[in-house]
Amino acid sequence: MATAKSTGESTQRSAPLTLMVTLLRVLIGWHFLYEGVVKLAAEKWSAGSYLASSRGFLSGFYHWLASDPTILRVTDLMNMWGLTLIGVALILGLFTRTASLFGALLLGFYYMAYPPFAGLDFGAPSEGHYLLVNKTLVEMVALLALASIRPGIQLGLDRIVRLIVSKLRRSSGTDSASAESAPLSTRREVLAGLATAPVLGAFALTYNRQKEQEAIDAISGATIVLRDTNLAQLKGALPKGEIRGMKLSRLILGNNLIGGWSHSRDLIYVSELFKAYNNDRKVFETLMLAEKAGIDTMVVVNAQFPLFNRYKRIMGGKLQTICQVFPKEDDLFTDADKAIDYGVTTPYFQGAVSDRFVQNGMVDKIGEVVEHIRKQGYPAGIGAHSIQVPIACQKAGIIPDYYVKTCHHDQYWSATPRENRQEFTVDRAWSPDHNLPHDNMFDVFPEQTIEVMKSIEVPWIAFKVLAGGAIHPKDGFNYAFKNGADFLCVGMFDFQIVDDVNIAIDTLRQCQVRERRWMA
Fold first, then answer.
1. Residue boundaries of the structural domains of the chain
2. N or C: which end of the chain has fewer CB within 10 A?
């Protein structure tokens, strides 16, 4: 009687533990199953980008997995089916110890691919971490704990397996257990074994309903699908030019979209939208994709250098920088010196500032800045919206290493009527009258730009070639290259990069012969 009472009390005490351990196992199983099913359902899902971008201590191993198509395919299949099968096993409580150990091993691989140390976890799901601890590590330890618990204490199919094995042993005479030590109720064991099976049905129902309502896009806690435009679509290598010993890709990444300067005319929300889209993570992805596509140079301002240099430090980026500097009438050199301290490749006198200096008769100050930059050992450029800037500089004998001058035609709807155009209005005139300037035109007299630049034998980086998004790249690139530009500076979102690089490659093939000879 005492033994029966003791057994009953023990069973009563273990019931909450059984329920909590089972609940923990089922929840982790749900997560694994979801991650696996999402990847199996996704068209052409691959862990290639995730593996190739690993910055962990074992990054060489992960890069090797991504380097060979056959190895990568095997890795993808093991990942997708491993997650799915482990998830099913954990939910059902079948081979729990084995599933827990393999699940912990898989999570260990994920953890080491992007350890939550400073700078090493970029590209991993942005669900936060606490120094060395993140969700992946917590889940891995939980699985190890589950593996250490006797399966019989949990609800699940392992109970039925044990029941079947026990009966087989008794029937064969290999199990010497007495009838009294056998399970008191086979029916109770079967019900306990099937207790979590309905969870699979609930998962299937929930998944199908969500799939009908919206496309499922998991940034899996274990893995992540980086939105990487297909680089295999590139039509070739992006050609390069040279400015005073500095080789640059003919297409240069602009910084306005990243900085939130949209030039969106009277659409007042667009700049904030740009900044919301281009968070630090998205900027890193954009720069990574640009480098992979063959773009090796980016225009920046000093305020963007901390983020840019962080990208180079963490991701090992090789992008060069052309920095806009903003000299002041009473402080010509500080901004240029700051760019040099940040590690700029080449600074140039920003266009809106040079417009103002020329308009105010201070072209000699532009020359002083150019010479100051050169004395530091750097190529020096001059930016301009107004064609009067290069005219004045050439007349004053100020010859930069390159010009950064706007270039676009006026055949688009929001262009200012020709009779209402005036020099020195770019980035300054904001009229509510549709027929007057309102952040809508950046090369006010394009024909004059083309004619003047023909006579200037200095490399020309053309910018605003799409007039702030009003001209299609095929049209804008062709117009600028055909009319003398040596390089194009173009702001691009990540999803535009491969297309724009291909357009640049096609356009350059067609523009080898032109009136203005190639200066770089």
1. 12-156+195-213, 238-510
2. N
